[in-house]
Design brief:
Blueprint: E1 2-5, E2 12-18, E3 22-35, E4 38-39, E5 42-47, E6 54-60, E7 64-70, E8 74-82, E9 87-96, E10 98-102, E11 108-113, E12 120-126, E13 132-143, E14 146-147, E15 150-155, E16 162-168, E17 172-176, E18 182-190, E19 195-204, E20 206-210, E21 216-221, E22 228-234, E23 240-251, E24 254-255, E25 258-263, E26 272-276, E27 280-284, E28 290-298, E29 303-312, E30 314-318, E31 324-329, E32 336-342, E33 346-359, E34 362-363, E35 366-371, E36 380-384, E37 388-394, E38 398-406, E39 411-418
Parallel strand pairs: 10-12, 20-22, 30-32
Antiparallel strand pairs: 1-9, 2-8, 3-4, 3-7, 3-9, 5-6, 5-8, 11-19, 12-18, 13-14, 13-17, 13-19, 15-16, 15-18, 21-29, 22-28, 23-24, 23-27, 23-29, 25-26, 25-28, 31-39, 32-38, 33-34, 33-37, 33-39, 35-36, 35-38
């Protein structure tokens, strides 16, 4: 609305409809006031409904804005009062905030802040201790001739105090773990005189998947800051492996990467973790029986896809003299086990035939580790890079165990015969 003050001392009155606790802004443009040969200026005074005392005010000596939260519902009054003998004209624009929008996971929402001091609002459904992310794309904010920016403030259900916040001066994301279940609110608050537009996408994490031994599971991280979850059944002191294939992650124009964090049953602190910047694997021996959880956490802004395969070790087989046993190591990091009966002072020969192991494009290999009865430290070992044999003299009688442990990423098959 254009306002003209043609005579010194002239005042102008406006009215606007307000709702209690709702934010409003008043933007002054086309400012053209003077006080004789000096620059001109004026005040805006704001009055609650039926009140003759100003609730708040703001001074204008140029284009600008003033925003505040109205504490009462009703028709408010605004008075333009020139300073000293100032006369002139300007355009005053009143604006409510951008209407609040409900965010749904994976659905982008476009927001435009048209007026200085204007805010925007959102809501999202959260579950306590379930991680969420907010990705900003198509960022196009300016603060006059300078780059623009804004904050996102996050509020717990029923709270007016921000739980957390994040600053955006470009495309980016912010992720956190809400501590409470319910409808959370988000406020977009531009910094200084910033106006513009952007696209906001809220996303829950990728749904948790149960891993079964030997079954590949595909995962896609579509949004920056998004995580993925898995569970697997573990037996205490039984070795497991996790193989990543079809790795296709990027961090903008740079290579992408992620971590896998492994959690014991009912524990929120990671027991162990591994970094993946390409295809690969990670193997370890869980110390506890139960359902373990795994979290895929991308590094920085990495997004993309990969295939994860969990695998238990090849089932342990009992060796008998002269009988060949076939073994296939299908997954990187996977082991195989054997047992054999021994007499103190006896010698056993372990022949490997039909050796067919490789380590990617390189020749593969493996070790056989031999364990005395009821011992977890190996007594001796033998290395195989092809067909061959190895003699082991057993100092103790009883049931010995053997572990086949591939070297590096070796996989393949062979036949083992004990004599």
């Amino acid at each position: 609305m254009k306002a003209v003050v043609s005579k010194p001392g002239q005042k102008i009155t406006y009215a606007f409809a307000a709702t209690a606790h709702h934010h409003v802004t008043f933007q002054v443009t086309n400012f053209n006031f003077s006080d004789g040969t000096n620059p001109g200026s004026f005040y805006l005074y704001f009055y609650k409904p039926s009140s003759s005392s100003a609730y708040t005010s703001n001074f204008f000596g140029d284009n600008g804005w003033y925003d505040f939260n109205t504490p009462a519902t009703g028709t408010w009054t605004v008075k333009l009062v020139p300073y000293s003998s100032s006369v002139g004209s300007m355009t005053l624009t009143f604006a409510n905030d951008v209407a609040t929008k409900a965010l749904t996971s994976g659905t982008p929402i476009t927001t435009t802040i048209k007026f200085e001091g204007q805010h925007a609002g959102y809501t999202f459904a959260a579950t306590a201790n379930s991680h969420v992310t907010f990705q900003v794309t198509q960022f196009n904010f300016a603060d006059g001739a300078n780059p623009g920016s804004f904050y996102l403030y996050f509020y717990e259900p029923g709270s007016r105090s921000a739980y957390t916040s994040n600053f955006f001066g470009d495309n980016g994301w912010y992720d956190f773990t809400p501590p409470l279940t319910g409808t959370w609110t988000v406020q977009l608050v531009p910094y200084d005189a910033s106006t513009g537009s952007m696209v906001l996408t809220f996303a829950n994490d990728v749904a948790t998947k149960a891993l079964t031994s030997g079954t590949a599971v595909s995962t896609t991280i579509e949004f920056e800051g998004q995580h993925a979850g898995y569970t697997f059944a573990a037996t205490a002191n039984k070795h497991v492996t996790f193989q990543v294939t079809q790795f296709n992650f990027a961090d903008g124009a740079n290579p992408g990467s992620f971590y896998l964090y492994f959690y014991e049953p009912n524990n929120t602190s990671a027991y162990t973790s591994n970094f993946f910047g390409d295809n690969g694997w990670y193997d370890f021996t869980p110390p506890l029986t139960g359902t373990w959880t795994v979290q895929l956490v991308p590094y920085d802004a990495s997004t993309g896809s990969m295939v994860l395969t969990f695998a238990n070790d090849v089932a342990t087989k009992a060796l008998t003299s002269g009988t060949a046993v076939s073994t296939t190591i299908k997954f990187e990091g996977q082991h195989a086990g054997y047992t054999f009966a021994a007499h103190a002072g006896g010698t056993k020969t372990f022949d490997v035939t039909q050796f067919n192991f490789n380590d990617g494009t390189n020749p593969g290999s493996f070790y056989l580790y031999f364990y005395e009865p009821n011992n977890t430290s190996s007594y001796t070992s033998c290395f195989y890079g092809g067909d061959g044999s190895c003699d082991v003299t057993t100092p103790l009688s009883g049931t010995w165990t053997v572990q086949l442990v591939p070297y590096d990423a070796s996989t393949g098959s062979m036949k083992l015969t004990m004599t």
